[in-house]
Here is the input.
Amino acid sequence: MPKVVLVQPEDPTTTHAEGPRTPPRTSARLRDWLGEAPTRHSPPYSRYRWARLLTYLVLGWIALIIAGGGGAEVSESYGIAFPVALAATALQAAALLLAGWRPVPAWALSLTAATVTALLARPHLAALPPDGPGPNWPWTTPTLIAHMAVFLLLALRVRPAGVVAAVTVTTAVTWVLQALTGTGRYSGTGTLTVALCAVMAVTGAALRSRQQARSELVQQTTITVEERARRTLLEERSRIARELHDVVAHHMSVISIQAQVAPHLVENPSPELLENLSGIRANALEALTELRRVLGVLRSEHAEHPEHPEDPYGLGAPGTGAAPDAPQPTLDRLGALIENTRAAGLDVTAEVVGGIRPYAPGVELSAYRIVQEALSNALRHAPGSRVRVEVGHLPDGLRLRVDNSPPRHPAPPSPGAGHGLLGMRERVAMLGGRLVAGGTEGGGFSVTAFLPGDVPDPPDQRPTGEQTP
Here is the structure.
């Protein structure tokens, strides 16, 4: 019993390119706002492991200096016991290390440690004699350096709104400490601290914006390259389909004519035979009509919005456009193609291996186009080179080989669109063949293609270039 698979209908609001649009979770948005979900490309981090390790090493070295040297300075300046001062500066160092992974909690820890240190120093400031210089307060040099580094890491990871909020809170806490609770003799460092933190915030935000712009540019460039490749592929397939139109239309015309003539070749044909032949002819004519419509859509640049109602498929008037009914080339015209290439300045030699035999029209058309494109590439990219064309008639198919030597002088800028190899591959893939193209050891280029040999049509049914309906 066959297995039945139920497929749910797609949501019309989703696309295959973007997938279903699900709103981000609250926790994910919060982590993004807190700067806890960075990429390895975000500064100061790098794609390279050694650069990231160097960043962590520098942060650890700065944190060690702040914890050890800062503790001694705070103890000496404020008269606080060294273990207490060391604990306060150790919190600042821990905040600096934490800022590499959790910038917002690290900023809060750094501000809290600086505030506690300033409050512990207030009694000592009030007891200082009125003469002589006073210590820096409420921010000492170690705490200021640590807080600046934390602010830089914060601005590199958090959105501008969060950075502005952090600067505002730091300014408010500094103002409260210095303006409302400040007593005794000291050198105020609040204004300098706010200014330096603002500079770090602007610098980090600028670096973050620059990195985001570069990432978006790389992403857009990648999308553009993929779209260009996809468009090129579709253009080549459309061109191949237009060229094969004459071949298919010819066979459909032959079917229609044979179905119309067949009743006259039989004496007293039965009604069933007449009906079947009439149906065959009607289907052939209908297929021809649909084929012309498809060809019109392929040729029209604006098939959905034609400018002329009398020509809805953009076929144009007879004798205009790209000669839609011109005969398609076959292997018989390779000689003329090679002569034209010689006249353009290339030294071309041709060799035929095996017994010449007819092939299906699609195979001969593709073979001619592959050789034509290979010779055109040699003209554009290897001027003055020697070219060898080999056409091998094998028992199971047709082998083509076009080799060119290195150019004798530099090639000028090519006006081509660069679709030659892509078109060759599409033609070979359409027929189930194989294609190998690449440079040679001597600096030249080689194209080798194999096209399976289909059963040929009788000679009287081969396309002769007549106009098809």
